[in-house]
Structures are given as structure tokens and as C-alpha cells.
Hints:
Elements: H1 2-16, H2 36-56, H3 62-69, H4 74-77, H5 80-86, H6 92-99, H7 106-129, H8 132-164, H9 170-194, H10 202-223, H11 239-246, H12 249-252, H13 254-265, H14 267-282, H15 291-341, H16 349-377, H17 383-400, H18 404-411, H19 413-433
Helix pairs in contact: 1-2, 2-9, 2-10, 5-8, 5-17, 6-8, 6-11, 6-17, 7-8, 7-10, 8-17, 9-15, 9-16, 13-17, 13-19, 14-15, 14-16, 14-19, 15-16, 15-19, 18-19
Amino acid sequence: MAKNNKELLEKTYGFLAEDEDARVCKDIPDSACNEQPKAFVLHLLSLVLTKWGDSLVSARLVLPWILTAGGAPSFLIGLLVPLRESLALLPQLFVAQRMREFPVRKWFWVGGSIGQAFSLLAMTISVITLEGAALGYAIVSALIVFSIARGVCSVASKDVMGKSVSKTRRGRLTGLASSAAGLMTLSVALIVIFAPEVEGSKAIFAALLGGAALLWLLAALLYANVPEVAGATAGGGNAIAEAIKSLSLLQTDAKFRQFVTTRALLIASAFAIPYMVVLIQREGSGALTSLGGLMLASGAAGLFAGRFWGRWSDSSSNQVMAAAALLSSFTMAATVLLQALTASWLGVSWVSGILIFIAAIAHQGARIGRKTYLVDMATQENRAQYTAVSNTVIGILLLLGGGLGVVDQFFGSAWVLILLSIIGVFAAAQAFRLPALNSDD
Length: 441
């Protein structure tokens, strides 16, 4: 039976990774080579479940709808994205130092996944039992715990993947997960769109949150079985002292500094969609910018673009980042141009749908490209450290990104998009200058 299971895993891996030889093992320990098919499949399944869960409880789409429908104060709604993004990144520098003391790190991911599940269960109970300000404070409080737990998973996943999945296979792993999760999100989006009066229903919100919690619990169960070899433990110690020491990488490691600069500029693609939606909603395209419509665009982008970006990232992840940044800038510029010349076109469902879809594709590419580049650039000894330092810097910048709200208030959303599109062009130029990481590096 065990032999049959192993053969099935190897066949599944060969098909998904498009690898006829399951022994391609670049940049991973020799002892992990034989277990790579199992590691690849379990990584993939876990990522699919959590990416699907992310789409069901998006801080950009779903949680704002929940708070709005529940009558929560608007200032709490404005806290959702900054808290979700920054708190998942800022603590990682300290988490990484603690993680260095443990040779096997998958249990950090398992614990973080369970933490996210229980946070979502708390949100589910809140949606059923609370309204108004009480609901808002309960959701925000649970989101804080969710985001910190998410940060733990982020550090651990890149470290474990770097030890168990071969270089030239990591990009397609992430891309496959995005495509599969996108397909599942499409089905949920169609239910939300066509179910009568579903968007204001407590039942559908509770189902989305509770369903996502179950996805994270199942992902934790799968990830616990990932075959991980013991890693280096040097570099652990006092978290604060080691964290400060780690930040010196930005000064001493030129390649890493270039990557962090590029990733910082790529933030433009993350901020693009909400401001595009603001312009589109003003033209009355309610159907496309409803909860179900936005989920549909996001899911379709993951389904159709994930595998493409992933395969390209395995051969040239810096080019993927550059292409994604240019695509995002082009889409933002097109939205502003339409708004200035023929604003009514933004109210046409297929026009607004295409714009949101392309922007989501660009954001997918930016995420897959920079994740693949980071994992491939780092080594077993510094991967967790690289991840934590870069995420800490980006977390700070995301908090500062709240300043875009000031630009929006005084000058309008169109000027925010113009600024972001210019930043995107700089991001593309910086990405092209990054050293290429091919399969021989």
C-alpha cells in the first residue's frame, strides 16, 4: 500500500510540476530529494486551501461588506486593510529569530494556521450575535490576531518550501495554487451573485467566515505531514537584538537591498484595485463592483493567470515582477483616462469588469514573482531572515500608505491612481535591474 501511495504521489507531482523526473533537486538538501513529490503535493494542497480562504475573507472585499451591512462605524472599516497587511508583516522579524532556534519549522506554520482558523470562528460568532459598533470592534480585534498568525505562516512557509521543493519548481507551485484557488473562488462568487438578497444576509457572511475557518484547519492538518529535513539553527537568540542585527542586511547585502527596493515599489499594484473601484462605483456599475462581482474578477484572475505567472517565474522571476508592474500601471492609467474623457464608459459592466480583471492579474504576477525571487535568492541559512526583514520594511511602508487617503481626500482618487501608476513604472525599471536567478544559480 505504501509503495502504491508513493507511486501515486510521484505521478501526481510529475503531472502538476510538468516534471518527468521527480528527482530534479536544485538548492535543497540531498536528504529531501526523495520526499520532494510528497512535499510538493502537500504544499500545493495547503496553499490552495489557504488562498481559497483568503478570497472568502478578503479585507479588501468581504470584511468591509460585513461591517457595512452590520452598521459598523466607517472609521473601523478604514482600519481593515492597513491592519490586515501591516500586522501580518511587522512582527515577522522577531518571529524569524525565534524560529531559528528550531531545526524543524513546519509546526510554526501549523500553529499559525490554527490561530487563523480560531480567529475566523470568533468573527463568525460575532456576525451572528452582534451589530453596529460592537460587531466592528469584534471583527477588528479578531483580525489583529488573524494577521499576526498569518505573519508566522509567511515566514515558515518560505523557509520550509526552500528546504523541501526544488528551485525551478517553486514558482509553478505557487501559480498552481493560485489557479486552483481562483477556480474555487469563482464558484463561490457565482453563488453570491445569483443567490437572492445574499449580500446583506448574515447567513452568507457566517458561511463565508466559518467555511474559511474549516479550510485553514484542514490546511494545518495537511501541512503537518510535509516531510521537512532539519535546518540550521545558527542566528537564533535574543529576538530584539538579533532583529536589529538582521536589519543591517539592507546595508551589507546589495542584491537583497535591490530586491527590497523593488518590492517596496510593487506596493502600487496592491493599492490599485480599491481606488479603481471607487472611480467605477461613481459611474453606477453596481453589479460589477458588488461583492460577488469583485470576487468573480479576483477568482478569474487567479484561475487564468496563476499558472502562467508561476511557470514564467521559475525561469525569470524578476521579469515577471517587471511585467506585472507595467501591466498594473497601464491599467490604472487606462482607468484614469476613461474617467477623464468618457466617464460613462466606466459604468459599462464589461469595461469595468475587464479593468478590474487585468488589475487583479497584475497583482497576482507581482505576488508570485517576488515570492519566487525571494525564495530562490536566499539560502537555507538566511531564507527566514531575508523574508522577515523584507516583510518588516514593507509592513512599515503599508502603514505609511495610509497617506494615500490624504491625497484622495484633497485631490481625488484619479490623482492617487496617477501617482501609483508612476510608482509602478519605477518598480518595473527596478525589477529589470535585479540580477537574474536562473536554474543554474
